[in-house]
Specification:
Blueprint (H helix, E strand, L loop, with lengths): L6 E13 L3 E9 L2 E6 L1 H4 L3 E9 L4 E4 L1 E6 L1 H7 L3 E2 L9 H13 L6 E7 L12 H7 L4 E6 L4 E4 L1 H7 L11 E6 L2 E8 L3 H4 L7 H16 L3 E9 L6 H12 L5 E7 L6 H6 L6 E2 L3 E9 L30 H13 L3 E6 L2 H14 L12 E4 L5 H9 L3 E3 L3 H14 L1 H5 L4 H6 L17 H10 L16 H8 L1 H6 L17 E4 L8 H4 L4 E6 L2 E5 L3 H6 L1
Parallel strand pairs: 1-4, 6-13, 7-8, 8-9, 13-14, 14-16, 16-17, 17-18, 18-19
Antiparallel strand pairs: 1-2, 2-3, 5-20, 9-10, 10-12, 11-12, 15-16, 20-21, 21-22
Helix pairs in contact: 2-7, 3-4, 7-8, 10-11, 13-16, 16-17
């Protein structure tokens, strides 16, 4: 704090959680977008002036601005205007799913595409994926594509199949599968086979993407997020997405800090972006290009995550899908590692994690060491003890989504058995072994609501009430740390944000209750009342700071 500095804003009147190591404070002063002072109320009052605004917590909890360490921001924003088929939005029957598709089609011109997201066959009354014929009944005059909640499979209707020129004779692509029943297409496409259909869907233009980015940022700010890692950029609209994000930043539509991870599969844009001049760590204070993503497998709920032991026979059996041969995966990882990108690699099953981890180890050379690069294994849900040890040895970071236990835990039991489900996403073990796992939602795969994720970390309880792996429960302070400082670490930003200390950026979220005084079930109903980024208001539920300025 410079001599004579005066606070522009004082926050006091309730607990201020500054971080797992920093503990609690009574008051916090902000000036010039930074935290000037934090500590005892009497001490912080010393830099308050006549022009200082005051925000009364009134017993509420203030925490560092939340970090969404793994999500898909543009698809999330676009999805806000698509057909919502999520179980927690009331879609638990085939009839309701088809009703929503039909209602969306009725609002659109015949011949256009109807896009939906979020169905879960395990939550539907039919216990299976919808079929092309069923979607035909709901929207006979439209091309329909609906994605499963995991985003690793979709169902297309007959019109979409015709536009994609997919027939019963179309071969499965490498790392993908086309659903067939007795030689007839079911409409189901898994993993890399989805590109056969998605490449025919007209991409959004830059204006629509900017609007979606702005909408996503507003939605996230209402949940207390001030920054996010945006995964697989370019998978929706190619290189035009880079232009859309640049325009959003230039025009003020981008309000969160974004750590951008480029789509790096062969069909992705990472190589084209490199040729266009994009480099690791380029960008400004809000938009930073840092990583490349490659898919190793699919999802455990969709039976496409790759395991060394098969799924239960009654669930369908098989060992899942590896998206690439080991030779190809290792070559991709070495390629992007040598170029200086942070590797952010999707791997859920232990076989996929092994393929990725051994590839990172093989890429570790004296000229291009892995240690210090903060390479990430995204999801990392079913990891072995040996794999955890090897990750720690090279500083490879697990980036899990504990909310998957809440949303998909019962399906994990049905697909993999109780023992593997109990051991999945082992937050307690990671922490006890010295790792620093972050927390995130993978939105729009799961709800972006952080309080559902916090509840899952505290209780290991599924949405049906099943408790999976109670020994993997962590404390509230540890869970908030995963959502703040640990998330900032994955973005090379822990010196700037993730904790509330003098000199740090004034990224702050105010929650409508003191979570530390709540029972776990009470956390599920929590709301964010105020979100600040650099001390500026991103979200103010009740207009309190506007009133304070009046």
């Amino acid at each position: 704090m410079s001599e004579g500095a005066r606070a522009e804003l004082l926050i006091a009147g309730g607990p201020i959680w500054c971080g797992k190591r920093e503990g609690f404070a009574e008051a916090l002063a902000i000036g010039g977008g930074r935290i000037l002072a934090v500590g005892k109320a009497a001490d912080v009052e010393g830099i308050v002036g006549a022009a200082t605004r005051r925000f009364d917590l009134a017993g509420r909890l203030a925490v560092p601005g939340l970090v969404e360490a793994h999500m898909h921001l543009l698809p999330y924003g676009l999805g806000l205007s698509q057909v919502n088929l999520r179980p927690d939005n009331g879609v638990r029957t085939l009839d309701e799913l088809l009703r929503r598709v039909a209602a969306a089609a009725a609002r659109q011109r015949p011949g256009t595409w109807v896009l939906g997201r979020g169905y879960d066959q395990g939550a539907l009354d039919i216990g299976r994926h919808p079929t092309a014929e069923e979607l035909d009944r709901a929207a006979p005059d439209h091309a329909v594509v609906i994605k499963r909640t995991c985003g690793h499979m979709l169902v297309a209707n007959s019109a979409a199949l015709r536009l994609a020129r997919v027939t019963a004779d179309t071969p499965d692509p490498e790392g993908g599968a086309i659903g067939r029943d007795g030689g007839r297409l079911t409409g189901l496409f898994q993993e890399r086979a989805m590109r056969l259909v998605l490449d025919r869907v007209p991409p959004p233009d830059v204006t629509a993407m900017v609007e979606a980015i702005a909408a996503a940022c507003r939605s996230l700010a209402a949940f207390g997020f001030t920054s996010a890692t945006d995964m697989n950029v370019g998978a929706t609209a190619g290189l035009a997405e880079i232009d859309a994000y640049s325009r959003a930043e230039r025009d003020g539509a981008l309000s969160l800090r974004l750590w951008q991870v480029l789509a790096g599969n062969p069909e992705g844009i990472a190589d084209a972006a490199w040729e266009a001049g994009l480099r690791p760590m380029s960008g400004g204070p809000l938009l930073r290009w840092g990583g490349v993503k490659v898919f190793a497998d699919g999802s455990a709920g969709g039976l496409t995550a790759a395991f060394s032991e098969p799924y239960l026979e009654e669930a369908g059996g098989g060992s899942g899908l590896l998206c690439f041969t080991t030779e190809t995966m290792h070559a991709l990882l070495a390629h992007y590692h040598r170029r200086g990108w942070q590797l952010a690699i999707h791997a859920i099953g232990d076989a996929a994690i092994e393929q990725v981890l051994s590839g990172m180890e093989a890429a570790d050379t004296p000229e291009h060491p892995v240690t210090g690069r903060r390479h990430r294994i995204e999801h990392c849900g079913f990891v072995t003890a040996d794999q955890r040890r090897r990750m720690q040895a090279r500083g490879i970071v697990p980036v899990p989504q504990p909310v998957f236990i809440h949303e998909f835990g019962d399906l994990y039991v049905a697909n993999l058995g109780r023992a593997r489900a109990e051991a999945s996403y082992p937050m307690r073990t990671w922490i006890d072994e010295g790792a620093d796992p972050s927390a995130s939602s993978d939105a729009p795969v799961s709800t972006v609501d952080p309080f559902v994720n916090l509840h899952a970390m505290l209780t290991r309880r599924t949405h049906r009430g099943t408790v999976l792996g109670p020994d993997q429960r962590i404390t509230l302070a540890e869970a908030l740390h995963a959502y703040t400082r640990a998330g900032a670490f994955t973005q090379f930003a822990e010196a700037e944000r993730g904790t509330l200390s003098p000199g740090m950026r004034a990224d702050i979220a105010v929650i409508d209750r003191n979570l530390f005084a709540c029972e776990p079930h009470e956390i599920l109903g929590a709301k964010v009342d105020l979100t600040l980024r650099d001390g500026a208001v991103l979200f103010d539920r009740h207009g309190e700071l506007a009133a304070a300025a009046a």
